[in-house]
């Protein structure tokens, strides 16, 4: 689709001015003779072309990466931590609840490090751990798509039992926080009066859940375990309710609905399925939200009390509050700053929008209609069908808050990598790191120009990524790697590294997603 040029009226004006100049030139040429007319022709030609060159937009083929600032941040992260200057879990936990000025229905978002603190010896160790967690999560997401495309349901893979028993969990995967891979947390009030707790944000999950007393088996979390006896709004769901019937895996005990959610690494949560009051900040609240009250939980959930599901299924938080839209902004993962998750707030008018696509076989994931990728302003020779969602539920590109590194089908990744390498021949390359195969040694440079990388959507819109969102440091020694990875799966994923610093808005009523840079 050909995009309209917002500067076309300027071009028309300048063309008109150039035409008038030509008419004047001809008159002068006739009156003053050929020699003087020739000189004037040179002057007017230079004058009009100079104005046009200054006025008409030129698509940038490169972006600037601030190497010094990126490396300094990785060094300061560990320097401040060694001096006990970084905020501890306790100091973040004790902060007053936050209320957004843009929406009364909002949660505050914190990065994983702001909640957990640092337990690594150096930045490379932190990077390798992140990439390991990321690979586990991606496998979980892709396995679920593989199952539905083959016509299998999770319940088909579980033997019928009269009771849910943790030791008999046999579900291969329900998407979510695999091995504590959640990188972003929100502060949520649960019950009445509200008990504050940190919950993982996950666009790849539907079921909300929190650890509950009494615990048969609970992992360590930053906040006290939620006690249902302290809440006047706690209510057990019965087996015949719509909420209970919407669960992928459920059981019935004395007409009480029990739930189970398991993850790709063997982590799980099992307990009562109930309704509770959820409070935003210190003011607005919503009642009767279906949420798992987990009494038997196992896994490395990094101090979070549970999970808020932002998927597209009936049990997700946006679906339960009938939100027409929601948006989040993911701050730098190495930062202790915070942003917001907001509901029922409009997409900013200047946002780059794209169509959201629904998977009829799996309503949890949120697919974007990506049709192409460009490097240095040139579209890569990738067939649009590479990114398309198929009728059987296979393929497509999802936007995921829990995956760090964007995954592309191998054919698309190879084309992107080769074009990027071609445009960075002047940069010293170095060996790959973990899943990254394209890395550079930038220790002698303060800033570098790198090829631009942009996503292109079916509505003709283009999202140009900041250089820091695709060439990232993997250590404190100025090793930077291209933050994309190939996948043999048909499912592609736009990860949170590419989303950092951008407000991602989901207009559910109009099936649109919007990307607004620098709106955290």
From TrEMBL:
Under SUPFAM superfamilies, the record lists:
Acid proteases
Q: Which PROSITE patterns match?
A: ASP_PROTEASE (PS00141), PEPTIDASE_A1 (PS51767)
InterPro entries assigned to the protein according to its UniProt record, in alphabetical order: Aspartic_peptidase_A1, Aspartic_peptidase_AS, CND41-like, PEPTIDASE_A1, Peptidase_aspartic_dom_sf, TAXi_C, TAXi_N
Keyword set, alphabetical order: Hydrolase, Protease, Signal
The alphabetized list of GO BP terms reads: proteolysis
Q: List each copy of the Peptidase A1 domain by range.
A: 184-516
Query: So where's the catalytic machinery, residue-wise?
Result: 202, 400
Q: Does the keyword Zinc apply?
A: no
The GO terms describing molecular function are:
aspartic-type endopeptidase activity
Q: Which regions span the lipid bilayer?
A: none
In terms of superkingdom, the source organism counts as: Eukaryota
Q: Which family does it belong to?
A: Belongs to the peptidase A1 family.
What is the protein name stated in its UniProt record?
A: Peptidase A1 domain-containing protein
* Protein source organism: Fraxinus pennsylvanica
Taxonomic path: Eukaryota, Viridiplantae, Streptophyta, Embryophyta, Tracheophyta
